[in-house]
Amino acid sequence: MRDEYLKGVLASEKKNLDSSEIAARDEFNRQHPPNKGLVVEDDLRKMELPARPWRNNRGHYFDLADYEVLSAHISELKPGNNSVRHRHTTEAYLYVVKGHGFSLINYDDEPIEVVEWQEGTLFAPPRWAWHQHFNLDGNDTARYLAIQDTGLLRTMRLHNIERHGVQLSPEEGKKILDAAAEAGTTHGSRK
User: Fold this and answer.
1) For residues 90 and 150, is the Cβ–Cβ distance under 8 A?
2) Do 90 and 82 touch, CB atoms closer than 8 A?
3) Whole-angstrom distance, CA of residue 91 vs CA of residue 162
4) Alpha carbons 179 and 183: distance in angstroms, whole number
5) Which one, of 174, 171, 161, lies nearest residue 52 by Cα?
6) What is the pLDDT along the chain (191 residues), one digit of tens a residue?
7) Selection from 69, 111, 118, 112 nearest residue 94 by Cα
8) Measured on CA atoms in the order 172, 76, 162, 93, is the torsion positive or negative?
């Protein structure tokens, strides 16, 4: 993926500086350059990951095969903890490589949908939908690999990442999970 991009016409750093994650992500990648080449030599379940404070987790980015459209990152959720509630203009497939938990997904005023996940689960939050990930294991980390079309959106100057003004705690998230499980409306299977 290209290292330099023009500012986007929708770039949130222009409009929503307080809630934008783009500047933090770009600075993180300057300090912790993405893996390049054809293969990631590390085991994604075990590789060391630097802290991503703006997302309340650890992570690392990959820019393989000089791709212009696709990129990926691995994210790790602390034991019993959660990511930051956010949304982005990129499409993303999330593949769980370690652990079990759930994600809450919704558009602005629509009901929250619950996706339960475990190692081997593949799911996709819809484009520009709010989502937040929760690790149900209080003793071990959880990890997921996200594959996104970030290069395409950045080249088109349409890349936007926004942090939600209301962050849900693990306890609040668990109440939503339990209510959805009781109603039989969760996606995925309960571990």
Assistant:
1) yes
2) no
3) 14
4) 6
5) 161
6) 445 544 544 444 455 445 567 888 888 989 999 999 999 999 999 999 999 988 889 999 999 999 989 999 999 999 999 999 999 999 999 999 999 999 999 999 899 999 999 999 999 999 999 999 999 999 999 999 999 998 898 888 888 889 899 999 999 999 999 999 999 999 997 55
7) 118
8) negative
In order, the DSSP letters of the chain are --S--PPPSS-HHHH-TTTB-HHHHHHHHHHSPPEEES---S-TTT----EEGGGTEEEEEEEETT-SS-EEEEEEEPTT-B---EEESS-EEEEEEE-EEEEEEE-TTSPPEEEEEETT-EE-PPTT-EEEEEE--SSS-EEEEEEE-HHHHHHTT---EEE-SSPPPHHHHHHHHHHHHHHT--BS---
**What amino acid occupies position 79?**
P
pTM, 2 dp: 0.88
